[in-house]
Amino acid sequence: MSKAATTLAIYRVDPGKADSARAWQAKFDEAAAAFAGFTESRLTEQTGPKAVWAASVTFTSERALRHWLDSPARAALVTEGAAAGVIDAVPPIVLVEDEAPPPGIAVFTHRVVPGREEAFRQREHDLNVAGDEFEGYLGSILLAPQSPDGLWMSVVRFDNDVHLAAWINSPRRAALLPELRGQLQEDFHQYTRNTPFGSIVRVGSSGTVVTPQWKTAMVVLLVLYPVVMLLSRFVGPLLSDTGADPGLALWISQVISMGILTYLCMPWATRAFSWWLDPLDGADIRTSIKGAVIIVLLYVVTLVIFLSLKDLQFWDYG
Questions:
Q1: Is it true that domain 5-191 has CATH number 3.40.718.10?
Q2: What is the pTM of this model?
Q3: Is the pLDDT of residue 253 over 60?
């Protein structure tokens, strides 16, 4: 299952060349859009101190993104941009869905309520100003989508993970987030590294932290039970009808269930419960209890469904 991949370009623009830079960026986006796998592009929104020029291009997979990055067309446009006063400030940053960004960088996506874009920009500006008070702060980047229903992207840069974690976990930032969330259709999403079975890996002030095992186990059980029940009801009988040895049939069924869990169910469940699984944002007692109660209620729902609908009960099949 391919993961969306984004390249983030940070560059400087020579004084007086802003209009030329925007014209060049439009041409750059048009060229990227002609490549297979292109999904969207975003442009810089200036949000406060240490704001920089930047743009991002997203493709359906890292392979498609690499094809664009290594293409002669992009190389020619970079050369043309230099002549127009647009100079690469740092090498392109590659961001892959469900993988951690490079050290010192945090990436967030936002779905803004239509009509609240200006208020959202102001909230991002406030966060940028507050971040500038922290050690190691290199700046924030706000990238606006080119389509009305697209996702905004904000990028926070520090000189290392320790300084970044100090900002991410600070009371100063926490105090500003409610107003930011008030401009969004749903809570923002942070790029983090997820393991195949629901754990989220983050870097905290004391080092790398991972989702507690009991939370991961609860989510695995939530999706494992329905998968096993459905496979036992619908796939098991098909394998039995082929005359397959019971041990082989069970092995095949387990292979199918692992594939479904790894590539379909667990990625979905991890995203849905990321607010609870996150080892930093979801670590407080109230959030932990709230998530556990929701999952227990979902356990009850699945049990009621499978224990009351005879057509889903493999032990009554035939």
A1: no
A2: 0.63
A3: yes
